[in-house]
Amino acid sequence: MYFRNVQRNVFILLLIFLLAAPFQSFADPVQIKKITLTDAIDLALSNNLDLQSERINVELAKNDVKTANRLQNPEINIFYNFGAAGRGNPQQIGATELIEIAKRGPRKKLAQANLYKKDLDVKLREFELEMDVRETYVDLVGLKTVLGCLYDQKKLLNDFLALSQKRHNAGEVQETDVIQTQISINQLETQINSARTAVQAARNDFNKALNVKQDNPQVVYDAFEDELPGETVFIALKTPDFNLKMPPFEKIADRALEKRLDIKLAKQEIEVAKKNLVVVSRQRVPDIELMGGYGYQPHGHSDTGEFRAGAYAGANLNNIPLLYSFKPEIKNAQLQVVQAQTNYESAKNKAIKEMNSAYEQFLSSRTNLLFYKQKLIKDSEKLINISKKNYLEGKTDLTSLVVMEQSYKEIVVGYIQALTDYYTDWIDFLRTVNSEDFDLFDESL
Questions:
Q1: What are the pLDDT digits (tens) for 43-97?
Q2: Fewer CB within 10 Å, N- or C-terminus of the chain?
Q3: Rounded to an integer, what distance in angstroms lies between the CA atom of residue 290 and that of residue 288?
Q4: Are the beta carbons of 342 and 398 closer than 8 angstroms?
Q5: What is the DSSP pairing of strand 31-35 with strand 219-223?
Q6: Interatomic CA distance for residues 141 and 358, integer angstroms
Q7: Interatomic CA distance for residues 22 and 147, integer angstroms
């Protein structure tokens, strides 16, 4: 009985393996494709799906201009009288054409104003997309750099573990040194796992920002610069010179405001509203309907028994604003002008506050980064080297070395985060300025 149960269990396990194997063989592995920041921006500007959809709006607006400038199509009219009604009355074949008075020009100008607005929409979307790609790229590089530092930290702790084990075997230190180092490695492993998860999330955000259509959905784009040492990971992003004193916001506010595309959009909304008011007001102007054609009387219908031929012409005045003068539509169009002007002033007020806040945040991040570069990093590197030397010479215990090493790790990670914050805060400021190459020190702009 026991042997039969073993056979049955083996058979079930074999069956499960055979059933699962085909599904595993069809699972395509994720393909990581590393690209530089410049390539990432070019890829997004060329292939981003949302941007492609936005650009279609421009083509639609171009067609709207042609539609607004159209002439009315003519009508073909035929009047034929039958029986006794046809005697003495002509038969007519002609055409009728509606002539719009003072409407086609304003309608075309309104469409052209909307076209310019769509162009601004696309430029703003392109700029925002570029900033999204930059920010997610920098975040990804920063988190990958942190993960790399944690791996370096693990390697260092493993060296400490080997060293403490060697000294314990030689009877120089207690076994607690070995245990303490192992505990530190295990604690670090949890931080590494969290850092891996953060990198994966940042990579997903980066690919979400790119939002490009792919033939192979298993291809995942990744940052290239994480393989470079130190601050060169951010070399593709220009930032203000560290050696120059940052100007106060008041000196750059006007120049920054002039570059904002959303302010230009708000101003263009006023133009659109004004041109729409003209179009609506022109509805009060009557249109002229012209008609004309060929008229004739057959032999049997004329009074003289002869075939008579001739022509006819006529005119109508359409849409005379006597019973309805379009007052509600005109009033709404006037209110839309006031609303657009109010929105424009509101946009400027908000823009000043947004730019000021972003600039102050950037200055704060710059201060923190300079402190790390000039003070913390140099001092901590010196201190960790001294602590390691003292431990090797038996002048200090492992606890002090591990504490100093953990402190050094926190400072290095903090420096990377400060560097990331510095670049992302500069990107945030560029967002508020709506310019990727804003120069804080060029007063001629």
A1: 999 999 999 999 999 999 999 999 999 999 999 998 887 767 667 678 889 999 9
A2: N
A3: 6
A4: no
A5: parallel
A6: 22
A7: 35
Going by the DSSP 8-state scheme, the letter that residue 244 receives in this structure is: S
CB 310 within 8 A of CB 336: no
d(CA 440, CA 423): 15
* Segment (H or E) for 327: helix 327-371
- 72 and 100 Cβ atoms separated by less than 8 Å: yes
Torsion, Cα 70 73 74 75, to 10 degrees, reads -150
DSSP 204-225: HHHHHHH-B--S-TTEEEEESG
Q: How far apart are the C-alpha atoms of 281 and 321, rounded to whole Å?
A: 11
> Which one, of 216, 222, 177, lies nearest residue 35 by Cα?
222
Domains in the chain (CATH in brackets) are 30-433 (1.20.1600.10)
Q: Which of 415, 421, 419 is nearest to 380 (CA)?
A: 415
pTM for the whole structure: 0.77
Summarize pLDDT for 9-46 with one digit per residue, the tens.
544 444 444 444 444 444 456 688 888 888 999 999 99
**CB atoms closer than 10 angstroms to residue 181:** 24
List, as one string, the DSSP characters of 116-162. HHHHHHHHHHHHHHHHHHHHHHHHHHHHHHHHHHHHHHHHHHHHHHH
Query: Letter for the amino acid at 233?
Result: V
